[in-house]
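quick q for whoever's on today - can somebody do inverse folding on this one?? i tried earlier but teh output was garbage lol. tokens:
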């Protein structure tokens, strides 16, 4: 994870920082016992759950799970790469970084620069310069200005214009020494079929740079200024650009999304920019395609609430329904902002202004179920008995997907009042619909999915307050000692190896074995710097915040190891117990006696 910066420089930077001072630059902290607490900057909350430990030089949020050290905090708050963050902190603390270190790297391995990402960065700067400073870009500039997009917004989103010339970008890339065939593979150039010559892919188009989560330009969307088709042209999928995994505007919106614990999802680039002007600075959009599971996962990692604001026509509302179901599947609380028919967000803001858009559209967004109910009423004559019964049946089907009983009861009562129906009759009918549909839509979750399902169903609670099973706690406390004591880690490696029951605990143990195997000394902050998986970083920071004894005794170690090793045997005993109960119900005396003896023998073995 260190990229091009030497390990000793990273250690020096880490040791020069006081995490309390670093975090205090971004939020207010209050001392509470040995720790400092404050409102988490990464999700919306009213009760402080963000804890900073000066002793361990770590932070952890017991609400959203965010955690890490001073370096990871600055990375998350400022949206910087690891290399950029360390370089900036080193400069601030007067620590020299070797001249060979580059901070203008694109999304290469470990933050290292790649020619393909540098090519896109150069193209973005070039297109932006043409729009803002040349006669060639004046028509596009005037068009954007007429649409209410100010120069400030053009700068914020780095909008640009591609000249109506076949080889102007190609010439610039060639002059700067880029491999033109690689630029073709990355979608900046294309090969003309008739001549075999390489040409600029984008011509006479307003250019919308598409950036990844770190803010690096990885592709473009181009809107034609003339009559060329298609009206919008995206970069093709490549090793750098995957439109199903990117969200337009997310690099600009990320801080606001986390601050407000909400995002607004639009259909197009112009909608995001117009909404940003209207004060909706947590807006983002998919790239001209239906929302994917991967995009929904990215949104869910950063917020719990999403408002869908799609076009007011039938196609837009159908797309909003599909997107809402994808988002709900990831555990998001979904709402839908309703626009008048045949208008999009950009049009609405042009016609009615920014205040009305905020107050009458965004702030009046409907819960997703209410949006579905309104959509199901369309094209139905509710005075007709057949349409009325079909409508009630369709609403009941959608209600079966609701996870909370209070929510189902609310809509059932609403339906009963609307049509003067018996609430009991509706409940019976809904139960019939539920039984018909079965549990295919929501199979019972297992393992870590259980926690996600609990959050989706409204049973969310602070991770720090969870009552973990004994084997789970044993693994957590063992890992906490391993992070703080090299010798303890070596003992665990000898006695337990990789036999942790939870996959993420086994992964952390493997990283610790490798970390100490490289000759590193015990340092939790330094260990976290060696982790690249965000989920493991969160897990490690939460475990590191546990209060443990300074040294682990032999008895304590043996007790933890026994609990971890014996857990699979207890699972097996429970399975036998279930079979025993079934045998007793079936009055199979012989099988019941056999299973009973097997259980007794297994329990005796565990007590030895």
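ok took a stab at it. sequence:
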């Amino acid at each position: 994870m260190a990229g091009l910066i030497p390990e000793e420089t990273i250690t020096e930077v880490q040791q020069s920082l006081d995490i309390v001072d670093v975090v205090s630059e971004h939020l207010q902290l209050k001392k509470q016992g040995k720790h400092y607490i404050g409102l988490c900057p990464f999700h919306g909350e009213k009760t402080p759950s963000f804890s900073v430990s000066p002793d361990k030089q770590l932070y952890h949020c017991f609400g959203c799970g965010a955690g890490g050290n001073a370096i990871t905090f600055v990375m998350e708050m400022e949206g910087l790469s690891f290399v950029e963050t360390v370089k900036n902190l080193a400069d601030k603390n007067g620590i020299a970084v070797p001249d060979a270190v580059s901070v203008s790297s694109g999304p290469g391995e470990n933050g290292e620069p790649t020619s393909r990402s540098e090519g896109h960065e150069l193209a973005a700067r070039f297109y932006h310069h043409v729009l803002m400073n040349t006669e060639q870009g004046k028509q596009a500039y005037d068009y954007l200005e007429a649409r209410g997009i100010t120069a400030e917004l053009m700068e914020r989103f780095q909008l640009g214009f591609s000249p109506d010339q076949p080889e102007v970008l190609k010439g610039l890339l060639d002059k700067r020494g880029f491999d033109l065939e690689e630029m073709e593979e990355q979608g900046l150039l294309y090969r003309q079929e008739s001549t075999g010559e390489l040409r600029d892919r984008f011509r006479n188009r307003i250019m919308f740079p598409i950036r990844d989560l770190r803010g690096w330009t990885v592709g473009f969307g181009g809107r034609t200024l003339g009559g060329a088709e298609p009206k919008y042209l995206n970069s093709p999928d490549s090793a750098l650009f995957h439109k199903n995994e990117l969200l337009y505007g997310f690099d600009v919106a990320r801080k606001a999304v986390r601050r407000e614990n909400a995002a607004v999802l639009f259909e197009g680039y112009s909608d995001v920019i117009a909404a940003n002007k209207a004060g909706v600075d947590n807006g983002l959009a998919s790239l001209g395609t239906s929302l994917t599971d991967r995009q929904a996962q990215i949104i869910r990692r950063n917020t719990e609430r999403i408002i869908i604001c799609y076009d007011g026509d039938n196609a837009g509302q159908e797309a909003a329904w599909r997107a809402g179901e994808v988002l709900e599947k990831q555990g998001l609380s979904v709402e839908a902002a309703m626009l008048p028919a045949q208008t999009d967000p950009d049009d609405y803001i042009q016609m009615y202004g920014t205040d009305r858009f905020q107050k009458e559209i965004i702030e009046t967004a409907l819960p997703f179920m209410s949006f579905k109910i309104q959509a199901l009423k369309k094209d139905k004559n509710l005075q007709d008995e057949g349409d009325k019964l079909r409508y009630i049946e369709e609403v009941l089907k959608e209600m079966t997907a609701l996870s909370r009983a209070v929510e189902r009861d609310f809509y059932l009562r609403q339906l009963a009042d609307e049509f003067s129906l018996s609430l009991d009759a509706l409940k019976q009918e809904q139960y019939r619909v539920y039984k018909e549909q079965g549990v295919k839509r929501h199979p019972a979750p297992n393992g870590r999915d259980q926690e996600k399902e609990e959050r989706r169903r409204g049973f969310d609670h602070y991770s720090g307050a969870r009552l973990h099973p004994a084997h789970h706690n044993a693994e957590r406390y063992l890992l906490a000692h391993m992070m703080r004591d090299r010798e303890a880690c070596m003992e665990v490696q000898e006695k337990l190896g990789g036999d942790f029951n939870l996959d993420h605990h086994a992964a952390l143990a493997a990283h610790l074995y490798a970390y100490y195997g490289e000759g590193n000394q015990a340092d939790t902050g330094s260990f976290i710097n060696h982790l690249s998986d965000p989920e493991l970083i969160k897990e490690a920071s939460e475990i590191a915040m546990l209060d443990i004894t300074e040294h682990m005794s032999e008895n304590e170690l043996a007790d933890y190891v026994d609990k971890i090793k014996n857990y699979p045997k207890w699972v097996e005993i429970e399975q036998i117990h279930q079979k025993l109960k079934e045998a007793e119900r079936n009055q199979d005396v012989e099988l019941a006696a056999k299973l009973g003896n097997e259980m007794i023998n297994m329990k005796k073995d565990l007590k030895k």
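fwiw Residues 102-114, 439-466 have pLDDT under 50 and may be disordered. also The longest helix spans residues 554-585. so keep that in mind when u check it
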